[in-house]
Specification:
The complex is a heterodimer of chains A (about 240) and B (about 110). With about 240 residues, chain A is an alpha/beta fold. Chain A has one domain: Rossmann fold (3-Layer(aba) Sandwich). Helices cover about 35% and strands about 25% of the residues of chain A. In chain A, strands 1-3-6-7-2-8-12-9-10 form a nine-stranded mixed sheet, with helices on both faces. In chain A, helix 1 packs across helix 5 and helix 2 packs parallel to helix 4. The longest helix of chain A has 16 residues. Chain A is globular. In chain B, the strands form two sheets. Chain B has a four-stranded antiparallel sheet, with no helix packed on it. A three-stranded antiparallel sheet of chain B has the order 3-4-5, with no helix packed on it. Chain B is built from one helix and seven strands, in the order αβββββββ. Chain B has one domain: Immunoglobulin-like (Sandwich), CATH 2.60.40.790. With about 110 residues, chain B is mainly beta. Chains A and B meet through helix 8 and helix 9 of A and helix 1 of B.
């Protein structure tokens, strides 16, 4: 089953499409939220996911789909409020790529965390990048991230990169050293910094200042995500073997 | 389904009961390490108790101007020596380390 994107906002031409879903350290979610706020993106669509269990977000007493689209200034952010099991993730990615294909995006970006046991000792987490082809690598220009060396990559980023590749969309996965089970705004900040060639310079001061509040606010989502990751294949797989 | 209401929860944190923080327990060769996420907490505001099979903590914090109380009992998978326990705090993360009570492995012959 594939998800369907229903969009009502103004069309962005040649956009950057960013996907943020709950994962290690909630890096993708924190980065997506901050970009939505700082770039002033407007809610412009929803992703209807058949594989998603019977859940929905509630806003002012009204059900809204938990996977939503925000857009503005040549950027689309697709963000999930709920952790996704592998089946639901594949459905979302396929649906989003089907929708994105006709917009001819200049880059599709997946932001995620790479669990690092010694994260507490790392002041500035390193950002790694993997592209889905030479075109994407060239289009990324001077993206501020370390290219992963030869090795084996598995998990959600790979699903994302292949889905884009099949449709001829240049894509990259930005993966930041992060905590596994604790919300990690510091890692999200590094991911946003590495996105600068695409979204411009973003002031990260507020993210740092609100870091404690974000950690507390996202506590419940982090716990739910940890449970889902333990059920899903991603938790079983080694994310990267060099 | 709790996390769908996290916005609501967030709004009432300051008037509701204690928050149970996220924690993780790691068993190493000769010690147990407990890591607890306590955003907004200073080390002098942590009340920490360690016994052979559990760690109990209570802490006061100020998060974005809101008072928050953390409280959690963390069961340990192996018995530790509370006398040898020590704790540190960095960036709102509490790390408690305690030596395992009987860390020696015993060599067993294979028949």
């Amino acid at each position: 089953m594939t998800a369907v994107v229903k969009e009502w906002g103004p069309r962005q031409s040649n956009p950057v499409v960013l996907l943020g879903i709950p994962g290690p350290g909630l890096v993708g979610i924190i980065a997506a939220d901050y970009l939505i706020e700082k770039l002033g993106l407007q809610e412009s669509g929803v992703v209807e996911v058949p594989a998603l269990p019977s859940v929905a977000a509630v806003r002012d007493g009204v059900l809204v789909p938990p996977v939503r689209v925000y857009s503005g200034g040549g950027v689309y952010v697709v963000k999930s409020d709920v952790p996704l099991l592998p089946d639901a993730f594949v459905a979302v990615v396929e649906g989003v790529m089907n929708w994105a294909m006709e917009k001819r995006p200049r880059m599709a970006v997946f932001i995620g965390g790479v669990p690092e046991q010694s994260r507490m000792d790392i002041q500035k987490p390193e950002v790694f990048v993997v592209f889905n082809g030479q075109d994407a690598s060239r289009a990324a220009g001077d993206v501020k991230a370390t290219r992963l060396g030869d090795g084996l990559l598995s998990g959600y980023p790979v699903v994302f990169l292949w889905a884009a590749k099949r449709r001829g969309i240049p894509a990259m996965a930005l993966m930041v050293q992060s905590f596994m089970k604790y919300p990690d705004p510091g890692a999200a900040a590094e991911a946003i910094r590495s996105m600068e060639p695409f979204v411009g310079e973003i002031d990260l001061g507020e993210l740092e200042a609100r870091s404690e509040a974000i950690r507390l606010k996202l506590k419940d989502l982090m716990e739910q995500t940890s449970q889902v990751m333990a059920q899903g294949e991603e938790a079983k797989a080694v994310p990267y073997i060099a | 389904m709790g996390w769908y209401y996290r916005e609501v929860r967030w709004a009432v944190y300051s008037v509701r009961g204690p928050v149970e923080p996220i924690s993780d327990v790691f068993v190493e060769r000769d010690r147990v390490k407990v890591v607890v996420d306590l955003p907004g907490t200073r080390k002098e505001d942590v009340n920490l108790l360690v016994r052979e099979d559990a760690v109990f903590l209570e802490a006061r914090a100020n998060v974005g101007g809101n008072p928050v109380t953390y409280r959690k009992l963390i069961r340990l998978p192996v018995e530790v020596d509370p006398e040898g326990a020590r704790a540190t705090m960095r960036s709102g993360m509490l790390v408690v380390e305690a030596p395992i009570k009987r860390p020696q492995f015993r060599r067993i012959g294979v028949e």
